[in-house]
Amino acid sequence: MTTDDHLADCRARLAFDLLSNTWNPVLIWVLRSGPRRPRELRERIGGISPKVLTETLRRLESNGLVARHAYDEAPPRVEYELTALGRTLLGPIDAFGAWAFEHGDEVMAAQERTGGSADPVPSRPRLEPGWREAVETAGVRRGPAG
Questions:
Q1: Which pLDDT band holds residue 22 (cuts at 50, 70, 90)?
Q2: If 40 and its partner were Cys, which of 16, 33, 36, 66 is the partner (CB 3.0–4.6 Å)?
């Protein structure tokens, strides 16, 4: 057995890969309160297309984090819920959200000092100056769920 920390099958890399996809932790967080139908998930999340939602749910299901339940009804009904394994990620996602809440201003200040994010993904939204005041004025709770 090797001690190389950068192997493709490294368990830490597996965990980071699960959380690095933009929608994986969002869906896990939304499913924390119980089973949801795809329409409910889209409404609660906002900004996710039906195609991306389906792809993300399939990915989470293939990793054993989400269970799909199809009901033999007319019209057909499908619900998704977290598995016991999926629920084990709620703590780390909550901790990561708390970290973002605590240090988000510092990260954004560093991005502004260096001329923007080094993130190569151009479609990821950037928070504009004044976002904090707008969120607080609207009375929206910041945290892991957004």
A1: confident
A2: 36
